Amino acid sequence: MTIWKRLKYLWPANRRREEREMREEFESLSAIAGSQEFGNLTLAMEDVRATWGWTWLDSFFADLRYSFRALRSQPAFFAVAALSLALAIGANSAIFSFADALLLRPLPVSNPAAVLDVSSTTPDNPLEGMAFPDYRDLRDQARSFSGLAAYRLTTLAVAANPLASAQIRFANLVSDNFFSVLGVTPAAGRVFVGDEATAPAQPVAIISYDFWQQNYAGAVSILGSQVRLNGIACTIIGVAPPSFTGLDRFIRPDVFVPLAMAQRLSGAAMDPLEDRGRHDLVVKGRLSAGASQPSAQAELGVIGAALEREYARTNRNRHMAIRTELDRRIQQSPQLLALAKMLMGLVALILIIACSNVANLLLARGRARSREIAIRLSIGASRTRVVRQLMTESFILAMLGGAAGLFIAYGGILLLNLQSVPNDPPNVLGMQLDWRVVEFSLLAALASCILFGLAPAWQTARTNFVSALKTGGDNVSGQPGTLGRDVLVAGQIALAMLVLIAAGMFLAGFRNLLVTPPEFRTDHLISLDTAPAVLHYSPEQNKVFYHRLVDRVRAMPGVAGVAMTEALPLAPSQTAISVVPEGYQFPKGREKTIEFGAAVDAAYFSTLNVEIQSGRAFTDDDRAGSRRVAIVNQQFAKTYWPGQDPIGKRIRLDSADGPVAVVVGVAKTGHYLAVNEASAPYVYVPYEQNPRSRMTLVVQSVGDAGALAKPLRDAVRSIDGNVPVFNLRPVAVLYKSRVTDTWLNLFQMVGTMGCIGLALSTTGLYGLVAYTVSRRVKEFGIRVAVGASRRDVVWLVERRGLILTGFGIAIGAALTAAAVPLLAEGFPGLGKSSPAAYALVPLVLLIVGAIASYVPARRAAGIDPLRALRDE
Predict the structure, then answer these.
(1) Which of helix, strand or coil describes residue 501?
(2) Measured between alpha carbons, how far is 808 from 798 in angstroms, rounded to an integer?
(3) CA 595, CA 631: separation in Å to the nearest integer?
């Protein structure tokens, strides 16, 4: 048959005509030759269809039609199996979306796999950025990349129009080739050209799609109009596409401006782009065709070594490194990797429980279908053909479960997106039901199809059709042949126990947070951030502004105290300080350490009630021109001066030849970025000796802290109405969102997994016991007929369920003993479940197992022996 005729056969009308003509011809031949001589008409027609070339397609559609009829004939089985898979796949998809937003999602650019992170690292700081002169040299010399783009994340005071008040927004200062290297095409307007990127006298900007919609209602007419950035009028020349939300996971910049604008926007006296010692740029490179990551790394190593020789002062021990985006994220946030791995591992256990549940149902269903399978085998169907038909049914179940799971995943994603941290400008987690989540759901459904479908299908296809035809498939006793299903049920219970114990660990960690007081005061405090530097204040003007603001707020009614800090504990953005501790021997190649730290004023420790363990706090005498001082926390002293008195020790700030500060106090170690972090060193320096351009004001109130919000905003405006005020919030709200709410959400996620696992394992146990009862009707009838009481029958069935539950608990105890230390080590902050929890979880499982077994046990006890024997 020609290819054209084969293609014509795919058309339903042509196929029906061919089938009709073939049947008529064979019937005529059969009438002439006789049916016995002609043979099996159906087999002859199958042979002819095989010559048409689409037998496999016909067979597949036939399998689909039969599978839908078979599933529709058993709606209870279909509903339980599909719901089990939907819950498991939905939970997996929701957690995958969470992990995707944390770590896995690729950059929103063209061909993101070809875009690599290029950094200029030192042994002191493997995450350090690159200086613009180094970037410029690298861009001109590297041949392994078709383009290298640089950017710096910052915040600017943005006013959408001359009448609008300025708001602090995230912005990217970008190189002129930023959009072209990333392959990003604007939704409206155009990207930067060379002259605009190098001529700051003609300021231009590109705005994000969201900013365009929120402030200009998507009007194209705004192109050519102006937006004010730090008081500078910039012409809008383009709008980024909606798919491009920047290169940082949790931050969405509203404005993109050329790097050449950096000096004007900051009001700096020196051009930061000419400072080879300022390493604050993030560089992304797109590999050239034919280049690989190792070859690019080798080339950049040569260029980096040449720059180190030529610029020894700024580039000493500095090396060019190339990483994938995922490697960069993992290196930046190893704690997020631990969280993602733990949650994905736990939710994978839920999928295994669901697959075990469905496999058990299929095994029981296969037993009940033994006569049907025997008939199919006896009339010529191969075992492989039977397996394919049964796998088609499993495939339909998996696909329908996956489709329903997407709706469950969408609800879970909506709930997870409610988690937020009060921050201005806001950080965005950005979980979404996109094609990546859909693809993951499809893969999970296909994997589950193989997990729960293949073994039952093969077991069912091995039916002894002679025995099954003789007995009608009803001679299977409850004991023999159920070992595999017993193992599956016990495994479900064991895994459910493991997930419930993990939920108990999160509950213990959450309980510890509730009963452990924070390391700093949170009640009666309100904080606000200001940024006079965006109005091009000089360093001296900055100090005058903050002094006036503190004096004015201190004189306000209802104010009990005022302090300043560079960063509040547990705020999303933390600052770091480079230090060289006296007498500490660094490993070869390292010259300094970078630790959490902040500039604070003299009132900080008393206002926030941060405990000084030894020495003293800062005083008003620690001013500019006096001896430089510092305060370190206990962990800093333990790390760098173990067994020594840190008071009087000296540290150098910024570098080995930086200014010397004497340690005058040791503060209690606290939590600075996350409540579950390991103890970390911290350094405090006095603001008067180390002025900063942006500070956080912390105000202690006599009454309700929230009542001071408007007076504080008015106090800033009374000094300079153009200075933006942001992050105005009670400290208790910040603490609650960063500590209580975060852990509560994690506990709810893991607790929901535990409940799903418990429900699925209960369903599996109930299904197995109910199936066993249905196969032992004759046995129970005989027992009752010869004098067994109904209580005896109930206990006979109940005992089986309890034994299975006990085996599952024993296996779960062994798994828990192995897994708990791994969970605690991989995710700091998890509490140790109390002995009561280790006793309560098995007890709950026993009670649930007893209830799941009791329902079919009562049914067995209610069997009428006469009717049971007559039916048998």
Answers:
(1) helix
(2) 15
(3) 13
Distance CA 472, CA 464 (A): 11
CB atoms near residue 662 (< 10 Å): 14
Which helix (H) or strand (E) is 100 found in, with range? none
Cα first-last separation, the chain: 55
Question: Which residues, at least 6 apart from 476, have a Cβ–Cβ distance to it below 8 Å?
Answer: 367, 370, 775
- Say if residues 260 and 192 touch (Cβ distance below 8 Å): no
* Rounded-to-integer distance, Cα 256 and Cα 243, Å: 15
- What's the pLDDT tens digit per position in 160-198? 987 788 889 999 999 999 999 999 999 999 999 876 766
d(CA 61, CA 572): 56
Rounded distance, CA 476 to CA 695, Å? 78
Which H helix or E strand runs over 660? strand 660-667
How big is the chain, counted in residues? Answer: 872
Question: How buried is residue 255: exposed, middle or buried, by Cβ count under 10 Å (0-12/13-18/19+)?
Answer: buried
Nearest to 132 by CA among 155, 114, 149: 149
The pair phi, psi for residue 258, each rounded to 5°, is -65, 145
Instruction: List Cα–Cα distances, 485 to 186, 374, 846, in angstroms.
Output: 58, 22, 19
Among 393, 365, 361, smallest CA distance to 463 is for 365
Which pair of structure tokens corresponds to residue 236? 């809008």
Look up residue 740 and give its DSSP letter: I
Amino acid at 870: R
Q: 321-360 burial by CB neighbour count: b if 16+ within 10 A, else e?
A: bbbebeebbeeebebebbbbebbebbbbbbbbbbbbbbbb
d(CA 304, CA 286): 18
Q: Is the bond leading into 425 cis (omega within 30 degrees of zero)?
A: yes
CB 597, CB 575: distance < 8 Å:
yes
Which three-class secondary structure state does DSSP give residue 494? helix
Closest residue by Cα to residue 810 from 499, 491, 359, 346: 491
Summarize pLDDT for 418-449 with one digit per residue, the tens.
Answer: 776 667 788 888 888 889 999 999 999 999 99
* Closest by CA position to 811, among listed 484, 481, 489, 346: 489
CA nearest to 302, candidates 449, 143, 189: 143
Round to whole Å and give the CA distance between 130 and 848: 60
Q: Amino acid letter at 69?
A: R
Question: Which ranges in 237-382 belong to alpha helices (H)?
Answer: 262-266, 293-310, 312-315, 325-332, 334-368, 370-378
The candidate with the shortest Cα–Cα distance to 86, out of 760, 765, 768, 769, is 760
List 185's β-bridge partners, or say none: none
The packing angle between helices 435-461 and 334-368, to 10°, is 30
Backbone torsions φ then ψ of 628, nearest 5 degrees: -70, 135
pLDDT (0 to 100) of residue 53: 57
> What is the DSSP code (8-state) at residue 625?
T
Cα–Cα nearest to 171, from 227, 246, 270, 118:
246
Q: Measured on CA atoms in the order 191, 194, 197, 201, is the torsion positive or negative?
A: negative
Write out the two tokens for 744.
């509560």
* 335-383 pLDDT, tens digit each: 888 889 989 999 999 999 999 989 888 887 777 777 777 777 777 777 8
Residue with tokens 């048998």: 872
Residue with tokens 């708001």: 167
Q: What is the pTM of this model?
A: 0.86
205-225 pLDDT tens trace = 999 999 999 999 999 999 999
Q: What confidence tens digit (pLDDT) does each residue in 529-570 have? A: 998 988 888 889 999 999 999 999 999 999 999 999 999 999
In sequence order, the 6+-apart residues with CB closer than 8 A to the CB of 178 are 149, 150, 151, 172, 191, 192, 256
Nearest Cα to Cα of residue 155 among 139, 166, 144: 166
Between strands 682-686 and 593-600, the pairing is: parallel
Average model confidence (pLDDT) across the chain: 86
